[in-house]
Amino acid sequence: xxxxxxxxxxxxxxxxxxxxxxxxxxxxxxxxxxxxxxxxxxxxxxxxxxxxxxxxxxxxxxxxxxxxxxxxxxxxxxxxxxxxxxxxxxxxxxxxxxxxxxxxxxxxxxxxxxxxxxxxxxxxxxxxxxxxxxxxxxxxxxxxxxxxxxxxxxxxxxxxxxxxxxxxxxxxxxxxxxxxxxxxxxxxxxxxxxxxxxxxxxxxxxxxxxxxxxxxxxxxxxxxxxxxxxxxxxxxxxxxxxxxxxxxxxxxxxxxxxxxxxxxxxxxxxxxxxxxxxxxxxxxxxxxxxxxxxxxxxxxxxxxxxxxxxxxxxxxxxxxxxxxxxxxxxxxxxxxxxxxxxxxxx
Length: 346
Prior knowledge:
Elements: E1 6-11, E2 15-20, E3 24-30, E4 33-36, E5 42-45, H1 47-52, E6 60-63, E7 66-67, E8 70-71, H2 74-89, E9 98-103, H3 109-121, E10 126-131, H4 132-139, E11 150-155, E12 160-166, E13 169-176, H5 180-195, E14 197-198, H6 201-211, E15 222-229, E16 235-241, H7 242-248, H8 250-266, H9 269-278, E17 280-283, H10 292-300, E18 304-306, H11 313-323
Parallel strand pairs: 1-9, 9-10, 11-17, 17-18
Antiparallel strand pairs: 1-2, 2-3, 4-5, 4-6, 7-8, 11-12, 12-13, 14-15, 15-16
Helix pairs in contact: 2-3, 4-11, 5-6
Protein backbone atom coordinates (compact mmCIF):
# COMPACT_ATOMS: atom_id res chain seq x y z
CA UNK A 1 0.00 0.00 0.00
CA UNK A 2 3.04 2.33 -0.08
CA UNK A 3 2.00 3.64 -3.53
CA UNK A 4 -1.54 4.70 -2.62
CA UNK A 5 -2.31 8.11 -4.12
CA UNK A 6 -6.12 8.28 -3.91
CA UNK A 7 -8.57 6.83 -1.43
CA UNK A 8 -12.31 6.86 -0.91
CA UNK A 9 -14.08 6.60 2.45
CA UNK A 10 -17.75 5.90 3.08
CA UNK A 11 -18.26 7.02 6.67
CA UNK A 12 -21.60 5.27 7.16
CA UNK A 13 -23.71 5.18 10.28
CA UNK A 14 -23.35 1.42 10.68
CA UNK A 15 -20.43 0.47 8.41
CA UNK A 16 -17.22 2.13 7.25
CA UNK A 17 -15.89 1.28 3.77
CA UNK A 18 -12.52 2.20 2.26
CA UNK A 19 -11.70 2.08 -1.45
CA UNK A 20 -8.36 2.44 -3.22
CA UNK A 21 -7.81 3.62 -6.77
CA UNK A 22 -7.59 0.63 -9.09
CA UNK A 23 -8.35 -1.87 -6.31
CA UNK A 24 -11.96 -1.16 -5.32
CA UNK A 25 -13.15 -1.86 -1.78
CA UNK A 26 -10.22 -2.85 0.45
CA UNK A 27 -11.82 -2.54 3.88
CA UNK A 28 -15.33 -2.93 5.24
CA UNK A 29 -15.82 -2.74 9.01
CA UNK A 30 -18.76 -2.11 11.34
CA UNK A 31 -18.57 1.44 12.72
CA UNK A 32 -18.11 0.38 16.36
CA UNK A 33 -15.48 1.49 18.88
CA UNK A 34 -14.72 -0.18 22.23
CA UNK A 35 -12.91 2.00 24.77
CA UNK A 36 -11.98 2.17 28.43
CA UNK A 37 -14.52 4.13 30.46
CA UNK A 38 -11.91 5.89 32.60
CA UNK A 39 -8.94 6.50 30.28
CA UNK A 40 -10.93 6.76 27.00
CA UNK A 41 -8.23 4.65 25.37
CA UNK A 42 -9.45 2.52 22.44
CA UNK A 43 -9.51 -1.24 23.03
CA UNK A 44 -11.00 -2.42 19.72
CA UNK A 45 -12.48 -1.04 16.50
CA UNK A 46 -14.73 -2.54 13.83
CA UNK A 47 -15.89 -6.16 13.88
CA UNK A 48 -13.94 -6.95 17.02
CA UNK A 49 -15.69 -4.12 18.86
CA UNK A 50 -19.07 -5.14 17.45
CA UNK A 51 -18.69 -8.65 18.88
CA UNK A 52 -18.18 -7.05 22.30
CA UNK A 53 -21.41 -5.03 22.09
CA UNK A 54 -23.69 -5.81 25.04
CA UNK A 55 -21.15 -8.21 26.57
CA UNK A 56 -18.52 -5.94 28.11
CA UNK A 57 -17.69 -5.51 31.82
CA UNK A 58 -18.42 -2.24 33.58
CA UNK A 59 -15.04 -0.74 32.70
CA UNK A 60 -15.51 -1.03 28.92
CA UNK A 61 -17.97 0.79 26.67
CA UNK A 62 -18.85 -0.10 23.08
CA UNK A 63 -20.45 2.63 20.98
CA UNK A 64 -21.19 3.63 17.43
CA UNK A 65 -19.73 7.13 17.05
CA UNK A 66 -22.39 7.97 14.47
CA UNK A 67 -26.11 7.66 15.03
CA UNK A 68 -29.03 8.77 12.85
CA UNK A 69 -26.55 10.22 10.38
CA UNK A 70 -25.03 12.51 13.01
CA UNK A 71 -21.69 12.40 14.80
CA UNK A 72 -22.23 11.65 18.47
CA UNK A 73 -18.58 11.83 19.50
CA UNK A 74 -15.88 13.53 17.45
CA UNK A 75 -13.26 12.04 19.75
CA UNK A 76 -14.34 8.47 18.98
CA UNK A 77 -14.75 9.25 15.26
CA UNK A 78 -11.21 10.63 15.25
CA UNK A 79 -9.81 7.48 16.83
CA UNK A 80 -11.79 5.23 14.49
CA UNK A 81 -10.57 7.12 11.43
CA UNK A 82 -6.95 7.05 12.57
CA UNK A 83 -7.19 3.29 13.12
CA UNK A 84 -8.75 2.80 9.68
CA UNK A 85 -6.16 4.95 7.91
CA UNK A 86 -3.31 3.01 9.54
CA UNK A 87 -4.82 -0.27 8.40
CA UNK A 88 -5.22 0.85 4.79
CA UNK A 89 -2.26 3.18 4.22
CA UNK A 90 0.18 1.93 6.84
CA UNK A 91 2.24 3.90 9.33
CA UNK A 92 4.96 4.80 6.82
CA UNK A 93 3.28 5.66 3.56
CA UNK A 94 5.53 7.03 0.81
CA UNK A 95 3.30 10.11 0.42
CA UNK A 96 0.04 11.50 1.71
CA UNK A 97 -2.97 10.35 -0.34
CA UNK A 98 -5.93 12.39 -1.54
CA UNK A 99 -9.26 11.28 -0.04
CA UNK A 100 -12.83 11.39 -1.37
CA UNK A 101 -15.07 11.40 1.70
CA UNK A 102 -18.76 10.48 1.43
CA UNK A 103 -20.83 12.37 3.98
CA UNK A 104 -24.55 12.72 4.71
CA UNK A 105 -26.12 15.62 2.83
CA UNK A 106 -27.06 18.61 4.97
CA UNK A 107 -24.15 18.13 7.40
CA UNK A 108 -23.19 21.41 9.04
CA UNK A 109 -20.05 23.08 7.59
CA UNK A 110 -18.43 23.01 11.03
CA UNK A 111 -18.89 19.22 11.23
CA UNK A 112 -17.44 18.76 7.75
CA UNK A 113 -14.43 20.91 8.59
CA UNK A 114 -13.79 19.02 11.82
CA UNK A 115 -13.72 15.71 9.95
CA UNK A 116 -11.41 17.18 7.31
CA UNK A 117 -9.02 18.38 10.02
CA UNK A 118 -9.04 14.94 11.66
CA UNK A 119 -8.25 13.17 8.40
CA UNK A 120 -5.51 15.60 7.40
CA UNK A 121 -3.97 15.10 10.81
CA UNK A 122 -4.22 11.32 10.26
CA UNK A 123 -2.09 11.51 7.13
CA UNK A 124 -4.32 12.63 4.24
CA UNK A 125 -3.02 15.25 1.79
CA UNK A 126 -6.44 16.72 0.96
CA UNK A 127 -10.11 15.84 1.42
CA UNK A 128 -12.82 16.14 -1.24
CA UNK A 129 -16.34 15.89 0.29
CA UNK A 130 -18.98 13.99 -1.67
CA UNK A 131 -22.67 13.79 -0.80
CA UNK A 132 -23.70 10.24 0.05
CA UNK A 133 -26.69 10.54 -2.26
CA UNK A 134 -24.45 11.45 -5.22
CA UNK A 135 -22.00 8.60 -4.59
CA UNK A 136 -24.88 6.17 -4.04
CA UNK A 137 -26.55 7.11 -7.34
CA UNK A 138 -23.29 6.69 -9.24
CA UNK A 139 -22.61 3.37 -7.52
CA UNK A 140 -26.10 2.19 -8.45
CA UNK A 141 -25.27 2.75 -12.13
CA UNK A 142 -27.47 5.82 -12.63
CA UNK A 143 -26.51 8.34 -15.32
CA UNK A 144 -27.33 11.39 -13.25
CA UNK A 145 -25.40 13.72 -15.58
CA UNK A 146 -28.00 13.34 -18.34
CA UNK A 147 -30.80 15.91 -19.02
CA UNK A 148 -33.43 13.57 -17.63
CA UNK A 149 -34.94 13.17 -14.20
CA UNK A 150 -33.55 10.29 -12.13
CA UNK A 151 -34.68 9.44 -8.61
CA UNK A 152 -32.63 7.52 -6.06
CA UNK A 153 -33.69 6.41 -2.58
CA UNK A 154 -30.69 5.51 -0.41
CA UNK A 155 -31.82 3.87 2.85
CA UNK A 156 -28.84 3.80 5.19
CA UNK A 157 -28.43 2.76 8.79
CA UNK A 158 -29.45 6.07 10.30
CA UNK A 159 -31.07 8.07 7.51
CA UNK A 160 -32.64 7.90 4.09
CA UNK A 161 -31.46 10.21 1.30
CA UNK A 162 -34.12 10.84 -1.34
CA UNK A 163 -32.85 12.74 -4.39
CA UNK A 164 -34.02 13.72 -7.85
CA UNK A 165 -31.12 14.35 -10.25
CA UNK A 166 -30.82 16.07 -13.61
CA UNK A 167 -27.78 17.49 -15.44
CA UNK A 168 -25.55 16.23 -12.61
CA UNK A 169 -27.32 18.25 -9.89
CA UNK A 170 -29.71 17.35 -7.11
CA UNK A 171 -32.84 19.24 -8.16
CA UNK A 172 -35.03 18.15 -5.25
CA UNK A 173 -33.79 16.28 -2.21
CA UNK A 174 -34.55 15.44 1.38
CA UNK A 175 -33.00 13.59 4.31
CA UNK A 176 -35.39 11.45 6.34
CA UNK A 177 -34.70 10.27 9.88
CA UNK A 178 -35.72 6.76 8.89
CA UNK A 179 -33.27 3.94 8.26
CA UNK A 180 -32.16 0.51 9.33
CA UNK A 181 -31.76 1.63 12.96
CA UNK A 182 -35.34 2.89 12.99
CA UNK A 183 -36.52 -0.50 11.71
CA UNK A 184 -34.57 -2.21 14.51
CA UNK A 185 -36.06 0.11 17.15
CA UNK A 186 -39.57 -0.63 15.85
CA UNK A 187 -38.95 -4.38 16.23
CA UNK A 188 -37.61 -3.92 19.77
CA UNK A 189 -40.66 -1.85 20.71
CA UNK A 190 -43.03 -4.37 19.16
CA UNK A 191 -41.56 -7.34 21.06
CA UNK A 192 -41.64 -5.36 24.30
CA UNK A 193 -45.32 -4.49 23.91
CA UNK A 194 -46.66 -7.74 22.47
CA UNK A 195 -44.46 -10.39 24.07
CA UNK A 196 -43.16 -8.58 27.18
CA UNK A 197 -39.71 -9.42 25.89
CA UNK A 198 -36.72 -7.10 25.94
CA UNK A 199 -34.21 -7.82 23.19
CA UNK A 200 -31.01 -6.09 22.11
CA UNK A 201 -30.32 -4.27 18.87
CA UNK A 202 -28.33 -7.19 17.44
CA UNK A 203 -31.26 -9.56 17.94
CA UNK A 204 -33.62 -7.04 16.33
CA UNK A 205 -31.25 -6.68 13.38
CA UNK A 206 -31.08 -10.46 12.95
CA UNK A 207 -34.88 -10.67 12.96
CA UNK A 208 -35.10 -7.88 10.38
CA UNK A 209 -32.54 -9.49 8.07
CA UNK A 210 -33.76 -13.10 8.41
CA UNK A 211 -37.55 -12.84 8.53
CA UNK A 212 -38.31 -9.13 8.15
CA UNK A 213 -40.78 -8.18 5.41
CA UNK A 214 -42.40 -4.98 4.22
CA UNK A 215 -45.43 -6.84 2.84
CA UNK A 216 -46.83 -10.36 2.79
CA UNK A 217 -45.33 -12.60 0.12
CA UNK A 218 -47.44 -15.72 0.62
CA UNK A 219 -44.95 -17.45 2.93
CA UNK A 220 -44.57 -17.30 6.69
CA UNK A 221 -41.06 -17.48 8.13
CA UNK A 222 -40.34 -18.08 11.81
CA UNK A 223 -37.40 -17.39 14.09
CA UNK A 224 -36.72 -17.60 17.81
CA UNK A 225 -36.01 -14.30 19.54
CA UNK A 226 -34.07 -14.53 22.80
CA UNK A 227 -34.12 -11.83 25.43
CA UNK A 228 -35.21 -11.03 28.98
CA UNK A 229 -38.78 -11.43 30.16
CA UNK A 230 -40.20 -8.15 31.47
CA UNK A 231 -42.61 -10.14 33.65
CA UNK A 232 -40.25 -12.59 35.35
CA UNK A 233 -36.89 -10.94 34.75
CA UNK A 234 -35.43 -14.19 33.43
CA UNK A 235 -34.02 -15.20 30.03
CA UNK A 236 -36.77 -16.22 27.65
CA UNK A 237 -37.23 -17.12 23.98
CA UNK A 238 -40.32 -16.58 21.85
CA UNK A 239 -41.05 -17.65 18.30
CA UNK A 240 -41.66 -14.68 16.03
CA UNK A 241 -43.00 -14.93 12.47
CA UNK A 242 -42.74 -12.73 9.40
CA UNK A 243 -46.34 -11.53 9.70
CA UNK A 244 -45.44 -10.00 13.06
CA UNK A 245 -42.44 -8.32 11.45
CA UNK A 246 -44.76 -6.72 8.88
CA UNK A 247 -46.88 -5.39 11.73
CA UNK A 248 -43.82 -4.16 13.64
CA UNK A 249 -42.37 -2.31 10.65
CA UNK A 250 -45.64 -0.81 9.46
CA UNK A 251 -45.23 2.60 11.12
CA UNK A 252 -41.70 3.50 9.90
CA UNK A 253 -42.55 2.27 6.39
CA UNK A 254 -45.69 4.42 6.33
CA UNK A 255 -43.60 7.44 7.34
CA UNK A 256 -41.12 6.65 4.57
CA UNK A 257 -43.89 6.42 1.97
CA UNK A 258 -45.47 9.68 3.19
CA UNK A 259 -42.18 11.58 3.01
CA UNK A 260 -41.43 10.24 -0.47
CA UNK A 261 -44.89 11.29 -1.61
CA UNK A 262 -44.25 14.86 -0.44
CA UNK A 263 -40.95 15.00 -2.29
CA UNK A 264 -42.49 13.73 -5.54
CA UNK A 265 -45.15 16.44 -5.20
CA UNK A 266 -42.36 19.05 -5.15
CA UNK A 267 -40.65 17.63 -8.23
CA UNK A 268 -41.06 19.71 -11.42
CA UNK A 269 -43.59 18.11 -13.82
CA UNK A 270 -41.06 17.36 -16.57
CA UNK A 271 -38.75 15.56 -14.18
CA UNK A 272 -41.69 13.73 -12.59
CA UNK A 273 -42.61 12.49 -16.06
CA UNK A 274 -39.06 11.19 -16.55
CA UNK A 275 -39.21 9.38 -13.22
CA UNK A 276 -42.51 7.77 -14.21
CA UNK A 277 -40.90 6.49 -17.41
CA UNK A 278 -37.54 5.43 -15.96
CA UNK A 279 -38.63 4.30 -12.50
CA UNK A 280 -37.02 4.78 -9.09
CA UNK A 281 -33.75 3.21 -7.93
CA UNK A 282 -33.53 1.81 -4.41
CA UNK A 283 -30.12 1.58 -2.73
CA UNK A 284 -28.54 1.39 0.73
CA UNK A 285 -28.39 -1.45 3.25
CA UNK A 286 -31.88 -0.73 4.60
CA UNK A 287 -33.33 -1.16 1.10
CA UNK A 288 -32.70 -4.90 1.34
CA UNK A 289 -35.79 -5.37 3.52
CA UNK A 290 -37.73 -8.11 1.78
CA UNK A 291 -40.60 -6.82 -0.36
CA UNK A 292 -39.87 -3.12 0.16
CA UNK A 293 -39.32 -2.47 -3.56
CA UNK A 294 -42.64 -4.19 -4.39
CA UNK A 295 -44.51 -2.23 -1.72
CA UNK A 296 -43.18 1.10 -3.03
CA UNK A 297 -44.04 0.10 -6.60
CA UNK A 298 -47.64 -0.54 -5.54
CA UNK A 299 -47.84 2.69 -3.53
CA UNK A 300 -46.59 5.04 -6.25
CA UNK A 301 -47.55 3.08 -9.38
CA UNK A 302 -43.94 3.61 -10.50
CA UNK A 303 -41.49 0.78 -10.97
CA UNK A 304 -39.02 0.70 -8.05
CA UNK A 305 -35.88 -1.34 -8.69
CA UNK A 306 -33.43 -2.59 -6.06
CA UNK A 307 -29.90 -2.12 -7.40
CA UNK A 308 -27.11 -4.69 -7.19
CA UNK A 309 -25.20 -4.76 -3.90
CA UNK A 310 -27.26 -1.91 -2.41
CA UNK A 311 -25.24 -1.80 0.81
CA UNK A 312 -22.06 -1.08 -1.18
CA UNK A 313 -23.45 1.57 -3.57
CA UNK A 314 -21.72 4.51 -1.90
CA UNK A 315 -18.37 2.70 -1.87
CA UNK A 316 -18.78 1.67 -5.52
CA UNK A 317 -19.66 5.25 -6.40
CA UNK A 318 -16.51 6.57 -4.72
CA UNK A 319 -14.47 3.94 -6.54
CA UNK A 320 -15.93 5.06 -9.89
CA UNK A 321 -15.18 8.72 -9.13
CA UNK A 322 -11.56 7.87 -8.30
CA UNK A 323 -10.94 5.50 -11.20
CA UNK A 324 -12.59 7.58 -13.95
CA UNK A 325 -12.90 11.22 -12.81
CA UNK A 326 -13.26 12.62 -16.34
CA UNK A 327 -16.52 10.73 -16.84
CA UNK A 328 -18.10 12.50 -13.87
CA UNK A 329 -16.55 15.97 -14.26
CA UNK A 330 -19.97 17.57 -14.88
CA UNK A 331 -21.50 16.22 -11.68
CA UNK A 332 -21.87 18.48 -8.66
CA UNK A 333 -20.44 16.34 -5.83
CA UNK A 334 -21.92 18.48 -3.06
CA UNK A 335 -25.04 19.93 -4.59
CA UNK A 336 -27.58 19.95 -1.77
CA UNK A 337 -28.29 23.09 0.23
CA UNK A 338 -30.58 23.33 3.22
CA UNK A 339 -32.96 25.66 1.33
CA UNK A 340 -33.76 22.87 -1.15
CA UNK A 341 -35.12 20.59 1.54
CA UNK A 342 -38.72 19.94 2.44
CA UNK A 343 -39.72 22.19 5.32
CA UNK A 344 -41.67 19.67 7.40
CA UNK A 345 -38.90 17.10 7.92
CA UNK A 346 -39.69 13.89 9.72
